[in-house]
Amino acid sequence: MTTVLLVDDEPETLAAWELCCEHDGYEVKAAGDGQAALAVLTTGPVDVVVADWRMPKMSGSTLCHHIRNTSGLAGTVFILVSAESTPPAFVQYDGFLRKPVDVPELLATMRRLLAEHAADGAAAHGHTASRH
Questions:
Q1: Long-range contacts of range 29-35, CB-CB < 8 Å, 24 or more positions apart?
Q2: Strands of 3-7's sheet, edge to edge?
Q3: What does R_g of the chain's alpha carbons equal in angstroms?
């Protein structure tokens, strides 16, 4: 089962994302800020992280930086979410979504990025993905 870590300091947003991701078949882990998310990541691997940009204690951009610079986590798919109109140029995220997040768009983005990540991994290991 694909595991998603959802990170947002707004409990209502987090609860809504959790419900939708669980309904779509994901195993869901959740955290209220970047520091809590890092603690969750020490308990086991996740396939994709969806994190708000602006949070107290540790922002989504700082969380992304930590993930990208941690052995074993660097390849994790990372989607940054924000009410800001433009994403930060200094963050190495895989996807960016504006708040309020359209849930079908979130789920579609997660599926697309996970599929791209799997294809990139197969190509890196000498496997070719067949395209129909």
A1: 29/3, 29/4, 29/5, 30/5, 30/6, 31/5, 31/6, 31/7, 32/7, 32/8, 33/7, 33/9, 33/57, 33/58, 34/7, 34/58, 34/59, 34/60, 34/62, 34/63, 34/66
A2: 27-31, 3-7, 48-52, 77-82, 95-98
A3: 14
User: Which whole number is the average pLDDT over 102-119?
Assistant: 94
pTM: 0.89
Which domains are present in the chain?
A: 3-124 (3.40.50.2300)
- Give which of 53, 64, 50 is closest to 4, Cα–Cα: 50
Angle of the 11-23 helix axis to the 103-124 helix axis, nearest 10: 60
Our CA angle for 38, 25, 62, nearest 5°, is 20
pLDDT at 118: 86
